[in-house]
């Protein structure tokens, strides 16, 4: 989704801004642009398509010498994907340039008022309105940050913005409402960005800007004020990230690298937290609220996309083994229905990025109801991690590919840890706890044994790559995995795929089955094995091709299914951690064989910061 980078320092800004945009590419975008304040005027360049196209255009135009500038990757919401709609946007007076993430809800009213005052608009975006509004206010208020503050007072919606003005050439003003913004404080330089990746190269001293805050940077320092004009004093904190991780290495795509690191993601999520001897989990981030967690009446899990499916696995685990009633919700639904909270209910948000707008809005809804809020989050310092009362970090490292993979298994592993944490404090026996803990500690090695057979899955995927429809079936713990398998395939290969609970096949999907409609059936030897086998038989009776994901040693299933990919035997509740690996590989190999942009699928964004 949209990305912001802004630089003020002593170096040439253009290459730094372009590099910053490249670091943000993984979020998904469709056009990009930069504006640099020069000695005589402003260097503005925008381009549709990749940052490389913009870089080319910038290089062809020759040197941009300025050392203050703003840049943006756009993911179209208001107005088509055109150069004119790409940011930075300029007010008609020519002095003010602005980049924006988010959506301005009342832009139409503001725009028509400004038009009646003579402002001329060049784009179809909501963003351009803010630039003109600031310009308009500046007729009476000359100081840029004050004009920005007053303008934001009139604006309704979500934003992260960065603004520069030709007549105050040594200044950047940035502000945030519901769209992330981080200030990197280097030596004699500042870099502002919508996530930490462009900042990491410069400094690990960062300041998280909060909703309703405006930060102004000049060569002499930074200053934070609220939109209500209150002065805020905040020192930088140290950002804990390794730059080296954001590198594809020898892999053709980040996604394959990230699938390959799924075993490590489980190791990193469980390291130091799994206590096999006592069959328990040590979760430092939630110990403070342990008493409330032990007394929980109902756990409301809320998330979006793949994180929601990790929550769905968690629902099965926590209800079966910790005896805690769980209610699972999509962020986009939770925020608009009227959720009922009872005494001792707890809200749990799961989010890799910690910035997903719907998850965040749901979290805020829960906070308003005075419910204890917890988070399972990967990005350290992200908004969800800062706004929840307590939580568990995933420690999966940056996930670059838009489609989530290693973050998913890491979230599922944390669901298992939470099950132990809650279960053992609520009557789960030592023997059961020990069995789960021991088996969970063996999962990464099992995953590695699957990944060593990547080529086998590549060959299977090649046999299925030409089909245009897929059904993914699974039951109980593997129902969410059927949904995840289908989601991953459609996200990155654009092939229509539906995930279904196996038992529901007879209530609809079976009507579609024929020799051109393959099914991927997750059928490990668990408590619902026989039922899945019946489903395979029903599909075969209608000549539907079947790829089964089955337990090692299950020879019978090979007589039924056209193809079988085996996974090691583990506890039923932990099979999702194994069955999902071949499904991620399956989607990856099909998409890669079609030559698609696997890491940046069309129309998708890594972190969906708008509603
Ligand atoms: C986007 C991504 C998905 C991700 C979802 C939730 O749709 O493309 O891969 O699962 O957002 O993201 P979160 O950061 O909240 O886990």
Automatic annotation (TrEMBL):
The active site is at 2 (nucleophile), 606 (for fru-6p isomerization activity). One of its GO terms (cellular component) is cytosol. Residues 2-220 form the Glutamine amidotransferase type-2 domain. Pfam families: GATase_6, SIS. Its EC number is 2.6.1.16. InterPro entries: GATase_2_dom, GFAT, GFAT_N, GlmS/AgaS_SIS, GlmS/FrlB_SIS, Ntn_hydrolases_N, SIS_dom, SIS_dom_sf. It catalyses: D-fructose 6-phosphate + L-glutamine = D-glucosamine 6-phosphate + L-glutamate. Residues 289-428, 460-601 form the SIS domain. Keywords: Aminotransferase, Cytoplasm, Glutamine amidotransferase, Repeat, Transferase. The keyword Cytoplasm applies. One of its GO terms (molecular function) is carbohydrate derivative binding. It comes from the Bacteria. It is found in: Cytoplasm. GO terms for biological process: amino sugar biosynthetic process; carbohydrate metabolic process; fructose 6-phosphate metabolic process; protein N-linked glycosylation; UDP-N-acetylglucosamine metabolic process. PANTHER family: GLUCOSAMINE--FRUCTOSE-6-PHOSPHATE AMINOTRANSFERASE, ISOMERIZING, GLUTAMINE--FRUCTOSE-6-PHOSPHATE TRANSAMINASE (ISOMERIZING). Catalyzes the first step in hexosamine metabolism, converting fructose-6P into glucosamine-6P using glutamine as a nitrogen source. Homodimer. This is Glutamine--fructose-6-phosphate aminotransferase [isomerizing].
